[in-house]
Amino acid sequence: MTDKPDAVSLFRGSERNNCAQAVLKAYANLAGVDQSCVERFARLGSGRAPQGECGALFAAKALLTDQAARQTLHDEFTRAAGSAACRQIRQLGRLSCQHCVETAVDSVFVQLSQGQMLRRPANCEEGVVPSA
């Protein structure tokens, strides 16, 4: 992969994707994400991911196979946004929802450029409860 995907155009566009869905769709081909998976992430936007985490951050971490890469992504995102929690991010006003999507997609892109692999998120399987 040489070009960073444009998740911002997928966010709240004609398909009305939330932040988590936009991040998933940006890497759908690389991660084996289909439309049913994207639909499952509809319930994880707007601070409804576990522990109120930003949906864009949650989706980005769900795509990565390596725990250390997920932690690095989490730390970098939190540094940029001021928090991992959606409500706190909004209160701080450092990043808009659109910028959270862009930051999450950029972070996944960096991880890919460093040799990390993507996976179909476990949350996409029937009966799986969302987790970080």
Please specify the SSE layout and strand pairing:
Elements: H1 19-26, H2 28-31, H3 35-40, H4 55-63, H5 67-81, H6 86-92, H7 97-113
Helix pairs in contact: 1-4, 1-7, 4-5, 4-7, 5-7
Commentary on this structure:
- The protein is an all-alpha fold and 132 residues long.
- It has seven helices and no strands.
- The two termini are 25 Å apart.
- 44% of the residues are buried.
- The C terminus is likely disordered.
Strand content: under 5%
Structural class estimated from helices and strands: mainly alpha
Q: What level of helicity do the residues show? A: 40-55%
Number of strands: 0
In short:
The chain has one domain. The protein is 50% helix and 0% strand.
Which features characterize this protein?
132 residues, single chain, globular, mainly alpha
